[in-house]
Amino acid sequence: MIRELLFEDLDGTFAPDPETVIDAAAADPRYLDRVPGLLALLAAPGTERYHRFLAVQALASWGCGAVYPVVAATAEAGRRSPWLGVVRDLTGRDRTFPELAGAVAEGRRHTAGTDAEPARIAALAALVGLGDELFFDWQLAYAADEPAAADAVAEVVARGVDRTDEADFDRVLQLAGLCAVLGRHDRARAVPLAERLLRKDTRLSVRVHLRPVVAIGA
Questions:
Q1: Cα diameter, the chain
Q2: Angle of CA points 3, 115, 109, to nearest 5°
Q3: Distance of alpha carbon 139 from alpha carbon 101, whole angstroms
Q4: What residue numbers bound the domain in which 48 lies?
Q5: pTM of this prediction?
Q6: How far apart are the first and last CA of the chain?
Q7: Rounded distance, CA 49 to CA 215, Å?
C-alpha cells in the first residue's frame, strides 16, 4: 500500500525517494486524492514505524488537519518519541524532526484560510519549543518564519540562551537562526534576544546569522 501512495507518481512510475511524491503535490493537487489512503495507513496497527512516519510527513505537507495533533504530540515527546532516529542522514544524524518541521512549513500552502490552520500552528509552536533541545538544521527557522510563530520563537530563544548544559548540536547557532526570522515579524523582541546571544557567543557564524537583527560588530 505504501508503494502506491508515496513511491509512485501519478502515472504509476516508481519513485525511489518518497519526498519526490510528497513535493509533487505542490504543483499537482491530484496527489491529494491519496490522503484517505494515508490516513488509513497511519491508523492501521500493523503499519511499520518508517511507513507510519512517512504518512505523517506527507499528510502534514499536504495540509491534512487531522495529522497536526500527531505532530504536536511527537514534538511534546521530544527525545522520548519512538520516531527519533527513524530517518537519518549519511552521517547518522537524526533527521526526524527536521523533516517534520519542513512538512509543517509546506503545509501552510494548503491550510491558509481553512479550519486546519489552527492545528498546523499548534504543531508548529510545539516543534519550535524544541529549538533549544533538538537539532533541526535549517528547517525549523524556515517553518517558523511567519508571524503566528513569533511567541513560540521568542520563548525558546529566551530560554535557550540561558542554558548551560551541553547539546549534541550547535544550539546557539540554531537559536540565532530562529532569532533572525523573529526579527522579520517582531523586531522589538528580536533585538534584545540577539544581543543576549552575541554576549554568549561571538563566533562569526553566529554574528552572520544575526546580522539582519543587529549590527555585525555588536
A1: 56
A2: 55
A3: 6
A4: 1-139
A5: 0.94
A6: 55
A7: 46
